[in-house]
Specification:
Length: 607
């Protein structure tokens, strides 16, 4: 159910008395419902404290459902915070009987919001209600109200503001809804579901590179969810494609071939590298990686898979086994067939060698890994061309050539996890192209549909053919997601966004290097290509003290947020900043982001 709350055009004179308010409500009820005022519409009334309408600070809100006024609530801004709520009145339409609206209001006011001085009055009011009213409150279940925004005085959309009911009783008038969303998030979403920032940000809307939060603050979004909003927020082409598809057909399942599914498959294959000619559509990157491993196993008849330490593959059982970051593994790995090779992490070489003279020893080490920890018969190796969640770690240029030779010699296939690196993110269409890697299987996700849930596993014909059992997916190849992904691909191609990613990425990288020069102690490494960039923060690079500066990254994120820039973080120790603007980011936006970063570093280190 959508509850719309609109600011009523009531003059303060009308609010002079409660009677006037009731009358105005009932009148409005008649107008909007086309029915005569129904006395039972004023089903319950809660009143706390005096009405301060004469102060000119009284706000009155109508609560609408299906276009019909269901109730009215009025609050005063006499005091700096609504903790001192002076007045609230609610007329509850009978239609709300089962919705629990009244009970929630009472509960919030009495308990959650801690308004002790109202409690006695409220009790008295409640006791005054007839028995059936009391059982009415008791018997009601709660139904969620839609998120929205509290309308500040003088807002242009005076009569059209949608908001949650809760702001009426929130402690801070300045950030009412965000507070409530965070409260509810804390209450209902498990703590394991990590959020950024000391006080999590509540996104409300976005356009292009800009994101607006529920407090009305606008940010330059250089992380796009998690590198997912590839074309920026609310991209017109994507929106149009999805709406058009939504009006035709929103679901079919893989039991039916649909136009958006086959069109997208054709486009993906046309842009995919090498011999990748078949697509399994999935819903998440985890599922795409899981599918890829299953395919490799089905094709080779072998089970053992190599992956990299510091990699991230997702949160299904197989994906967690593949994860090279213990921080993401909830339980002990249940799949012994997964072996983790040392990451090609030159800044922190796992073999303690000098990257300039090591001869890519980490790749050569794979031979011993296979010979000592496997049967010697591999299903394959799953690799992110650039380790993303692990902290934006590109391998040495010849890493994959050496690795692929060893893997293929032992019967395995190469799986490129392009969930982060795909679709132009790195300044080439596919991350693997930077390293001359032609995978037999490739997984996609994140930016593929600009934020709609979609992923895919591409493979060669002969690998697809060796998957002989039946497989279905309820949501894989969903028409809406396919329509969005088709629009994303067309836009990337027509606007040459891969080139833009390369150029803007180069500019941003240069800026990051300049910032590093300014803060040489804290910024140990700047790395990445295209618009997938990272900065590793350490205790003191000048003395080679590379202890991860985890706290500094948290502080920096707070500072960038304060200045209106959103970035991400990663790495085993959370000490790596990750920056990933949309592919169509402008040169001006890159400059703006770099300026904010510079100022934010100054704020945390002084300089
Ligand atoms: C490289 C890579 N693979 C797979 C995944 C898992 O994707 P999802 O979160 O859609 O399951 C992620 C997610 O961050 C990822 O970065």
């Amino acid at each position: 159910m959508n509850i719309k709350i609109r600011r009523l055009k009531l003059t303060h004179d009308l609010l002079a008395t409660l009677g006037d308010l009731l009358e105005a409500c009932l009148e409005f009820y008649q107008k909007t419902s086309g029915r005569p005022p129904d006395p039972s519409a004023a089903y319950a009334m809660l009143s706390f404290g005096p009405l301060h309408s004469e102060s000119g600070n009284c706000y009155t809100y109508g609560i609408f459902t299906d276009g019909v006024l269901a109730g009215v609530a009025s609050v005063t801004r006499d005091h700096p915070s609504l903790r001192s709520l002076d007045f609230g009145v609610t007329l509850i339409h009978p239609g709300f009987r089962r919705k629990g609206l009244g009970r929630r209001l009472v509960e919030h006011i009495l308990k959650d919001q801690g308004l002790p001085r109202c409690i006695d009055r409220a009790r008295a009011v409640l006791q005054g209600l007839q028995t059936d009213h009391r059982s009415f409150f008791k018997g009601m279940g709660f139904q969620q109200v839609s998120p929205g925004h509290l309308c500040p005085e003088g807002s242009p959309s005076d009569t059209q503001v949608e908001m949650v009911l809760s702001p009426l009783i929130l402690p801070h008038m300045d950030d009412p809804s965000a507070f409530m969303v965070r409260e509810k998030h804390m209450k209902f979403i498990p703590a394991a579901v990590a959020t950024y920032y000391d006080e999590p940000l509540v996104p409300l809307a976005g356009k292009g590179s800009r994101l607006v939060d529920l407090d009305g603050k606008t940010y330059l979004d250089f992380f796009g969810g998690i590198l997912t909003v590839a074309l920026g927020h609310a991209h017109d082409r994507v929106t149009k494609a999805v709406i058009a598809q939504l009006q035709r057909l929103s679901h079919a399942s893989t039991f039916y071939p649909t136009i958006p599914m086959v069109e997208l498959a054709e486009k993906l294959i046309a842009s995919a590298p090498g011999q990748l000619k078949k697509v399994f559509f999935t819903v998440s990157g985890s599922e795409a990686d899981e599918m890829a491993v299953t395919l490799a196993q089905a094709h080779t008849g072998n089970l053992e898979v190599i992956t990299l330490r510091h990699s991230y593959a997702g949160r299904t059982v197989m994906a967690q086994a593949l994860d090279g970051l213990s921080s993401h593994r909830a339980v002990q790995s249940q799949i012994g067939a997964v072996k983790h090779a040392p990451a090609p992490y030159c800044y922190r070489c796992p073999l303690r060698l000098d990257p300039k003279s090591c001869g890519t020893a980490c790749a050569r080490d794979l031979k011993e890994l296979v010979e000592t920890t496997t049967t010697g018969r591999l299903a394959g190796m799953l690799v992110e061309p650039i380790l993303g969640a692990g902290g934006c770690i590109p391998p040495p240029p010849d890493y994959f050539a050496i690795a692929a030779e060893i893997v293929r010699k032992h019967g395995g296939v190469m799986i490129a996890d392009e969930v982060q690196t795909g679709f132009g993110r790195t300044g080439k269409m596919w991350g693997a192209q930077h390293f001359g890697l032609e995978p037999e299987i490739m997984t996609l996700g994140k930016g593929i549909a600009n934020g709609l849930p979609m992923a895919a596993t591409l493979c060669t014909e002969w690998i697809a053919d060796s998957f002989t059992s039946r497989t279905i997916s309820t949501f894989g190849g969903n028409p809406l997601a396919c329509a969005a992904a088709g629009a994303v691909l067309d836009e990337i191609k027509e606007q040459d966004l891969v080139a833009n990613s390369a150029e803007r990425g180069k500019e941003l990288r240069e800026s990051l290097v300049r910032i590093q020069r300014q803060f040489p102690r804290m910024i140990g490494d700047v790395r990445g290509v295209g618009l997938m960039l990272g900065m590793e923060l350490v205790r003191d690079e000048t003395t080679m003290n590379r202890t991860p500066a985890t706290e500094a990254v948290s502080q920096l994120m707070e500072e960038t947020r304060r200045r209106g820039l959103l970035i991400g973080k990663g790495g085993l120790h959370g000490n790596i900043i990750r920056i990933a603007p949309p592919l169509n980011v402008s040169a001006e936006e890159i400059e703006e982001g770099a300026r904010i970063l510079m100022k934010s570093f100054s704020a945390i280190q002084g300089g």
